[in-house]
Automatic annotation (TrEMBL), chain A:
Topology term for the membrane: Multi-pass membrane protein
UniProt GO cellular component terms: formate dehydrogenase complex; plasma membrane
Protein name per UniProt: Formate dehydrogenase subunit gamma
Domain Cytochrome b561 bacterial/Ni-hydrogenase: 10-185
Domain of life: Bacteria
Keyword set includes Transmembrane: yes
UniProtKB/TrEMBL annotation, chain B:
PROSITE patterns: 4FE4S_FER_1, 4FE4S_FER_2
Residues noted as binding [4Fe-4S] cluster 4 in the record, renumbered to the chain: C109, C130, C133, C136
Binding positions for [4Fe-4S] cluster 2 per the UniProt entry: C46, C157, C160, C172
CDD domains found in the cross-reference section: FDH-N
UniProt name for this protein: Formate dehydrogenase subunit beta
Gene Ontology BP terms: cellular respiration; formate oxidation
Co-factor requirement: [4Fe-4S] cluster
Organism of this sequence: Pseudothauera rhizosphaerae
Xref: InterPro entries: 4Fe4S_Fe-S-bd, 4Fe4S_Fe_S_CS, FDH_Electron_Transfer_Unit, Formate_DH_bsu_Proteobacteria, Formate_DH_C_sf, Formate_DH_Fe-S_su, Formate_DH_TM
Occurrences of domain 4Fe-4S ferredoxin-type (ranges): 27-57, 88-120, 121-150
Protein residues bound to [4Fe-4S] cluster 3: C97, C100, C105, C140
Gene assigned in the entry: fdxH
Location in the cell: Cell membrane
Alphabetized NCBIfam families for the sequence: FDH-beta
Length: 207, 301, 806
């Protein structure tokens, strides 16, 4: 483990644990969900002990994920409120993706992309939870027309959320030095200054 | 005939072709509602042949018993009293799986081989492959499949595929004492229905006709109706059944679309990484921080 | 049935009245569908309820329960007024031309000879005018005012459409529509069949209901015709067989009238029952009574029955009165009958006035129940809460339950409604300690015989001398009994020339071979020939049908003489040609009768001989005027004993003819008839397709299909009484009350009768306190203890109740 006292604390242990609970839930839900969604992925149910187990577990994991997501949402919602600078950042994101981040406006703890992702995930989570309950025949019985809409919403939202997570994961990989924030809770000062200068200033009091 | 009838034409959650070389005649059950007296012998025969016994229920002020289809009630007489032109009619319809040519249940089912359609047209649930998700319920335009509270499997009329496979008529057709349920080649059933419709028209039912809804590609359970212009008179038989657009969207275009989108995202990321490289912290900042660190160390001393 | 099940397909018009074939005779109803689908026949249903039969009918007319005679008499009047008769048939094949005693009359609802005290008629004037040649006088022109035709016209003229509608509640236009459809069948090539059942028999005028219909069929020329006849649909696979074997005290097997205390000697008994022809040249088949009876006595008593001892006549019981079902329970109730064997019968549930039946059973010393099921009757003494609220401590009756096998657990025969006897084979062993009925009876008999042999007794002879020729005396086989019933020659039978036609010991070919000299034995003359030297003909299963009429003469054996349609001679005109060549059953070939049925006629009786087709009648023709009936030679409308009107609209000022004046009413029961002011609604009881009597309530599948007792009422009555669909209601008659679930339906019509509105309450009867169905009350708690004047069948179909939300 890298123990550099100069590193900046970005996430507490509790926050990291919360994140990874969600991460595990997401992977399990994504795998089982895809299995129900497309025949090509159906063999994935074997990871859960077969189709019936996958069907039984998926909604319960969903419940866990929704609860933990709610906690995380409460923790981070305020930090993710969008400001004008975020929209400015977003308008310039193409250049950044192209490899040039010199013109990007200064960002606080989260940049506009992260914030947007946060809200996208939150919305997805809400839709998935709501439609998932409607589809959960073991416990609930809704009119079939409502269930049919829920099926479409659940599938579309699920795919959308998987896409968002792809972006989220890739962004973490692409932006080197990021993943450790969620593993150890710390980032280097250089990383902070480069990617989140506003936050860097805030936590270090420096320019 | 026996083995041939078990050729599988379609299988749930399966994207490849089914065997198609042999030609199998399509079968159909024809329910002549105008000849049905609602004796429920078909219900009794269904229970006996399939070894299912629903709970002894209650009378709730109607003749329908049990009151709805369930995992142990695969067919059911539904009674409706209507007054047409001042004349009372007691419409009695045998409800159950229609064995659609384009089955919504099969389309919706995520589990390979849990729902199959034989080449003869019978749509059958294979409970050993059923995962109990209930998607078939969502997919069915006739509200037929039921999930068992005991084993969470989906159940419905099998059109006695086991009997048909050995050249027997379904138990209900065999038991029907008035000949209101006929079973045979679909072509023959349509032909027989035509004669019944002529008879009904002669008796004053101008709108008599065959219920073989094309919205689901036709069905392998068909009705002769006195009022074919208004199927919904018969305890809510759908006038124009079709697989819900929601289900078509979900099990149709949504699947490839989502796959392409997700694939594109994943591949896009990969290629972005190898083409543009990672987003690293700049050398200047690293050096600046190293300097700062050295200064702080000295300060500390 | 004069015809048979398959023959229904030959009808052009099917009338269902006094029954509900689609509900209660579902399997046979397929032939109605066949007639409709193939012949394009029309189906008409007349019923107090819009039944399952009505659901598939071309026309439905409502009727008030218990007013069928008024409706049918109206049809007769319509046919006579509009001259819709098959004249040639009526003239040649009925007693329309016969002259009646000029003293015969009908006034104010009563025929001549009524004795109000005895509630019965002296029938002296109900007779033909006899000529000096010893034959009845006739007027072929039908003009004589005393001829049956003119008397009939006069009698029925009162039943015009308005009067009918006023009594029955059937809307006039609906009544006339039915009349028109029926009248079409007066054409020789149009035939109507009538399917009825307990909806006609279970009235205090039950026999007359059927007779009125028979008259219509005669006027239309439909008796004896394929697709015609008058067809009682029996409610059980073998109830026809039960009646044929006559385990009733008024009859011996084969409908031979049983001796009574009035018949002192064998000679007197036989003479009183052996008819003489009333017209020249008639077959007068009842003239053969001695042959049938002597052969029966030889079967029972063998060598002990001799000409010298009057064929053991003295050993036959001479009952001191009636022993029909109501009479038996009346005796039991009075403490005059103290032991009861109950075989395949659940009287607590199926006899009228459960309260009285229960009290009667409680007075017995012992009750033996032989049944495959644990019946309600076998537990009449047990408290089932509100459903059977009795105090077992007060009941001293000792009850024995002898578990019997079900029909599929032994071989034997069924006789269906169409008189076709069909052998059936054993399918499975009976469960547990069950025994076949034959074995149970044989065990009882052999033990009783041993007791009589050992201890003697008041009259041991009838028991000790009974023939008991079975290989295993305690287990007779069905095959042995079937042979015995059919009959055999006891000595070599020779013809006039002395040639042996039947060897001693051989089975007889038919009842024509029976003799009255003790040389033949037959346990039931109408079954004679069913088990011939060729073997058990009831076991034949050849369904080939060369005529296409569904005659299948090689399937089982139809009594009598394997004849499928009785009176079939009447399907031809007097010259011997079929009325309808497309439906040819028989024809005179020039030398003999031949065709697609066994002729109901002497085979060589040439048409010129003028032998009438109704060979069982001494007249040779059918009776439009029938002096044999208890309450009158012509049918008359009488109200049910519990009437919503309190008067007979035909005779409003004559309270003595409100209801059947000749029906038997026991002391105490008259007072128990409810009055319309307290019980304003007409109730009728019936069966459901989902159940079979009181059997299937013990079966889970049937219980699932119709789980709970219910009553049916109209939407109007429900609204008036604040009763909703599915509410529990209380239904009360003057004899008791039941609770059941309300089915509120458009299918119960509300009728306008005699200036007022009449509501009907429909009550299915299948429920009770034993079984898989939800425990329920016994419907017959409500029904009145009065029967048809002729057959004593209880009036289950029309009585009064009140209803309220429980």
């Amino acid at each position: 483990m890298i123990r550099n006292p100069r590193d900046l604390q970005r996430y507490t242990a509790s926050e990291r644990a919360n994140h990874w609970v969600l991460g595990i839930c997401f992977i399990l839900l994504g795998l089982s969900g895809l299995a129900f969604f497309h025949p090509a992925f159906f063999p994935l149910v074997n990871l859960f002990g077969g189709g019936t187990w996958a069907r039984i577990l998926h909604p319960w994991i969903g419940v866990i994920m929704a609860l933990f997501f709610l906690v995380m949402f409460i923790r981070f919602a305020r930090l993710n409120l969008m400001g004008p600078v975020d929209w400015d950042w977003l308008s310039k994101v193409g250049k950044m993706v192209d490899g040039d981040d010199h013109d990007m406006p200064e960002q606080g703890k989260y940049n506009g992309g992260q914030k947007l992702l946060f809200w996208g995930l939150a919305l997805s989570m809400l839709l998935l939870a709501a439609s998932g309950v409607v589809m959960w025949r073991a416990w609930f019985s809704f009119p079939v027309e409502v269930v049919r809409v829920a099926m479409v919403v659940h599938a579309a939202t699920g795919a959308f959320m998987i896409g968002l997570i792809f972006v989220h994961v890739y962004a973490a990989i692409w932006t080197r030095g990021t993943i450790r924030a969620m593993l150890y809770g710390t980032v280097t000062r250089a990383w902070a200054k480069q990617h989140h200068r506003g936050w860097y200033r805030q936590v270090t009091g420096k320019n | 005939m026996a083995l041939q009838s078990l050729d599988i034409a379609r299988r749930s959650a399966t994207t490849t072709e089914a065997p198609q070389v042999r030609h199998t005649e399509e079968v159909a059950k024809l329910i002549d509602v105008s000849a049905c007296i609602g004796c429920k012998a078909c219900q009794a025969a269904c229970m006996e042949w399939n070894d299912i016994r629903p709970e002894v229920g209650h009378n709730v002020g109607i003749y329908d018993n049990p009151q709805d289809l369930d995992d142990k009630t695969w067919t059911l007489m539904r009674f409706t009293e209507v007054e047409e032109h001042g004349k009372l009619e007691w419409l009695i319809r045998k409800d159950g799986c229609m064995h659609c040519a384009d089955p919504g249940c099969l389309k919706a089912c995520p589990s390979p081989g849990a729902i199959i359609q034989y080449a003869n047209g019978i749509v059958d649930f294979h409970q050993e492959n059923c995962i109990g998700c209930g998607y078939c319920v969502t997919g069915c335009p006739f509200n037929v499949p039921r999930i068992s509270k005991t084993d969470s499997k989906a159940y419905k009329c099998s059109l006695c595929s086991d009997r048909v496979a050995v050249g027997q008529a379904p138990a209900c057709a065999k038991a029907c004492p008035t000949g209101a349920i006929k079973f045979g080649a679909k072509e023959d059933m349509v032909h027989y229905a035509e004669d019944r419709i002529v008879d009904l028209k002669e008796r004053g039912y101008r709108n008599a006709g065959l219920y073989d809804p094309q919205g689901v590609g036709g069905t392998h359970v068909m009705y002769v109706l006195h009022h074919a212009d208004r199927p919904s008179l018969y305890a809510g038989l759908p006038d124009n059944p079709q697989i819900s657009p929601m289900v078509s969207l979900w099990k149709g275009i949504a699947k490839p679309l989502a796959m392409v989108a997700l694939g594109a995202t994943a591949l896009g990321s990969l290629f972005h990484y190898v083409m543009k490289g990672p987003n690293e912290v700049s050398k200047e900042l690293e050096d600046e921080m190293d300097k700062e660190a050295a200064l702080e160390k000295e300060d500390a001393k | 049935m004069t015809n048979h099940w398959v023959d229904i397909k030959n009808a052009d018009l099917v009338l269902i009245m006094g029954g509900n074939a689609a509900e209660a005779h579902i399997c046979g109803f397929k032939w109605v569908q066949e007639a409709k689908h193939v012949r394009r026949a029309k189906l008409v249903v007349v019923d107090p309820r819009f039944t399952r039969s009505a659901a598939v009918a071309d026309f439905y007319a409502p009727i008030r329960a218990g007013t069928d005679i008024a409706f049918l008499a109206g049809v007769i009047n319509y046919l006579l007024e509009n001259d819709k008769l098959q004249h040639e048939y009526v003239n040649a094949y009925t007693n329309a031309a016969f002259l009646i005693d000029p003293d015969y009359g009908f006034e104010d609802g009563l025929f001549t000879g009524y004795n109000a005290e005895k509630r019965s008629y002296d029938k002296a004037t109900w007779r033909y005018q006899m000529g000096e040649d010893g034959f009845a006088k006739v007027d072929p022109t039908l003009q004589d005012p005393n001829c049956v035709f003119q008397l009939m016209k006069k009698h029925f003229a009162r039943y015009d459409a308005d009067a009918v509608s006023n009594i029955t509640g059937t809307p006039k236009d609906a009544f006339l529509k039915v009349c028109e459809m029926i009248a079409e069948c007066s054409a020789p090539d149009r035939v109507m069949t009538i399917l009825y059942a307990l909806g006609w028999t279970q009235h205090s005028v039950g026999s007359q209901n059927i007779r009125t219909m028979a008259m219509i069929q005669l006027l239309l020329g439909n008796m004896g015709m394929p697709g015609g006849g008058i067809n009682a649909l029996r409610g059980h696979a073998n109830v026809q067989g039960v009646t044929d074997m006559c385990p009733f005290t008024a009859n011996l097997p084969g409908y031979l009238s049983a001796p009574t205390e009035r018949d002192a000697t064998a000679e007197a008994y036989v003479a009183a029952r052996t008819t003489k022809p009333l017209r020249p040249g008639q077959m007068n088949f009842y003239g053969n009574f001695p042959k049938w009876w002597v052969s029966l006595m030889k079967t029972w008593y063998g060598d002990a029955a001799t000409a010298e001892n009057g064929w053991a006549y003295d050993w036959l019981p001479k009952p001191d009165g009636s022993y029909d079902v109501l009479a038996m329970f009346e005796r039991m109730h009075q403490g005059r009958m103290n032991g009861f064997f109950c075989q395949g019968f659940n009287p607590l549930a199926s006899v009228a006035h459960k309260g009285k039946v229960s009290a009667a059973l409680a007075k017995l010393k012992y009750l033996v129940v032989m049944d495959p099921l644990a019946t309600d009757t076998s537990e009449f003494w047990k408290n089932y809460g509100e459903y059977n609220d009795v105090d077992p401590r007060q009941i001293q009756t000792e009850v024995f339950r002898l578990p019997a096998e079900l029909f599929a657990e032994h071989e034997g025969s069924f006789t269906n409604s169409g008189r076709v006897i069909q052998w059936h084979w054993k399918a499975a062993d009976g469960p547990g300690e069950t025994r076949g009925d034959l074995e149970i009876i044989a065990q009882l008999y052999t033990r009783l015989r041993d007791l009589y042999a050992k201890e003697g007794g008041a009259l041991p002879d009838p028991v000790l001398n009974l023939t008991w020729p079975y290989r295993q005396p305690t287990r007779p086989s069905a095959d042995e009994v079937a042979r015995e019933v059919s009959g055999r020659a006891l000595r070599d039978l020779t013809d006039a020339a002395g040639n042996v036609v039947v060897k001693a010991g051989d089975q007889l070919a038919g009842f024509a071979q029976l003799r009255d000299d003790g040389s033949t034995a037959s346990g039931n003359w109408i079954y004679c020939g069913s088990y011939s030297q060729a073997g058990n003909l009831t076991a034949r299963r050849d369904n080939s049908d060369p005529s296409g009429l569904g005659q299948t003469l090689n399937w089982g054996f139809a009594w009598p003489a394997n004849r499928r349609i009785i009176y079939n001679r009447a399907s031809c005109d007097p010259s011997g040609k079929p009325w309808d060549p497309k439906r040819a059953l028989l024809r005179w070939t020039g030398t003999a009768w031949g065709g697609n049925d066994v002729p109901d006629m002497r085979p060589n009786a040439a048409p010129e001989e003028g032998v009438g087709p109704f060979i069982m009648n001494a007249e040779g023709v059918a009776r439009l005027f029938a002096p044999g009936m208890i309450e009158g030679p012509f049918p008359e409308h009488y109200e049910p004993f519990e009437t919503p009107l309190a008067r007979n609209p035909l005779h409003p000022d004559k309270p003595e003819v409100t209801s059947n004046p000749a029906a038997r009413v026991y002391k105490g029961d008259m007072e128990l008839f409810g009055k319309a002011d307290e019980f304003p609604y007409v109730a009728t009881t019936y069966r459901l397709a989902e159940h079979f009597h009181f059997w299937t309530k013990t079966s889970v599948i049937n219980a699932v299909l119709q789980p709970e007792h219910f009553v049916e009422i109209s939407e109007e009555l429900a609204a008036e009484k604040g009763i909703g669909k599915g509410d529990v209601v209380k239904v009360r008659s003057n004899r008791g009350e039941i609770k059941a679930v309300a089915v509120v339906t458009k299918r119960i019509p509300v009728l306008q009768v005699d200036g007022r509105k009449v509501h009907t309450v429909g009550i299915p009867l299948h429920y009770g306190f034993k079984g898989e169905t939800k425990p329920g009350y016994i419907t017959n708690t409500l029904t009145p203890f009065v029967g048809d004047a002729n057959s004593q069948t209880p009036e289950y179909k029309a009585f009064l109740v009140d209803i309220e939300k429980a």
